[in-house]
Amino acid sequence: MDMAALDKPQVVVHFQRSVDFTVFDCRWVPRSTRLVCMGNRARGSGLLHLYELTRGELKLVKEVEKATPFKCGTFGAANLADRHLATGDVSGTLSVWNLESPEVPVFSAKKHNEIINCIDGVGGLGIGEGAPELVTGSRDGTVKVWDPRQKNPVANMEPMEGETKRDCWTVAFGNAYNQQERCVCAGYDNGDIKLFDLRTMSLRWETNIKNGICSVEFDRKDINMNKLVATSLEGKFHVFDLRTQHPKKGFASVMEKAHKSTVWLTRHLPQNREIFATTGGAGTIHVWKYEYPPQRSRKDGNGDRMGVAGCVRLLQNVGVATQPISGFDWSPDKQGLCACTSFDQSIRVLIVTRLNTV
Description:
mainly beta, 358 residues, globular, 4-stranded antiparallel sheet, single chain
């Protein structure tokens, strides 16, 4: 037996449950052992399933069916007392739900012309300074920022007149370390990554990595921008060091060829920002650790500071499904506990061991 292999983190399928609908996303309900999954039935309706880990099983405790399929969800703008779930659906509607009484949404607004592909939240759950806000990205090419206490978006990032509208596949909040600062990163189907500064309402940085951007995430939302992971088609992901922005070259980055197919998602471990997971189109999960260089910046020939990228180390990879893994979420409360959904119509609860020893 390879003893070195035993020292590495292991990914163990704790529970697996088959369902009769297509599942797009899953989220742990904060401060609980409950998990919410969302998607659509074959007949075209939307479905929310609320599960609870109890007595050695994953028990379905509530089913909510709505007219329109759900695409994505987040608790990121919720307070801990209510833990309301915000969802985006295929009609372009943002809704906020009380899972205890989900008959009617506590907030709903249809301001996108097409499907909402992605959603993120900040300012809730005690994570990030400032007001609770949501951000949505849509096939209509727009990125909208919402305060759930207001009916209309508080910010709207859309293409300039004459520009081609690109499908926005992923959005993420970051840099929310005080009451004034906040950024949104958006990734698009043509490989564009755009970083919007919400304090100045300006485009702070953009780049193109030539493949559609499937997922972006800051390593932490509530600190001065540190790192950003962007995953893409063709099995690649990039890690950008956001601490030093060069006036011409932007942010330093390292690129890794990870999965043999599309890298659908990236999710950082809540208890350690250097560890993150990526999920693949072939049903695989990879767990990585970012390692910083000896110096994170240096001066170029003109005296300008430029970042120096570190490297990523693969801690573990495992195949758990036969189809793409569409949803993945680490438990915010229990290190190593995570859940994933895949297009083989299965929900899996996983345990990743030995994360403290890497």
